[in-house]
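Lab channel / #folding
Pinned by the channel admin:
"Please post every new chain as: sequence first, then the structure tokens as a reply. Keep commentary short and put observations after the output so the thread stays searchable."

First post following the new format, from NK:
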Amino acid sequence: MRTAFIGMVGLLGMMGCAPAPGTTYSVVIDPAFSAEDIALAQQATQAWVVATDGVLNMWNVSVGTCTAANGNRNVAETCIHRVSDMQALALGAEPGFVGFTIWSEDSADVYMPSMADAGLSPAQLEETLQHELGHSFHLLHEAEKTALMYPSMQPQIQTISCGDLAQFYAIRGIQWLGNAGCPGGGTYTIDSER
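Reply from TO:
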């Protein structure tokens, strides 16, 4: 979770005994967001596809309603919901949240304010969306301040780092030796405090 803090609430106990998360996802964006917010959510989704060299497959990115309520959805569906501060607090967000994610199995619910509600610039909203999507793909917070998955927003906009990608591949059991942006691969350290 980012608050000027980005957060994740998840069922972490599943990481050790559940099958590795998949690489194919559907993302459904709440139509209550503005057209600009929706475009930024689509860009954030595409950023992950590009960063993973297409290993992450978004077979459906749409605007609409998730397929069912209360977590009874298709596996690998990420729903991005627009919420107010009051709604977010009722769902378990910390005061000052900018976004947070609740995941189960390979599905997730991302809760975000609109850009206008949060007072974020377009770049800050896209960064927060990329961070929360990272949680929906089962990534945890990292200790490195330059990582997108660092728990707090930094003065400079963060992008998907080599460490973020290393974590993405590692939790899926995929050997990754790097790419053009990360020729030696990457390393990461989980931030165990957040």
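NK: The CA atoms of residues 115 and 125 lie 6 Å apart.
TO: also worth noting, The domain at 6-11+20-141 is CATH 3.40.390 (Collagenase (Catalytic Domain)).
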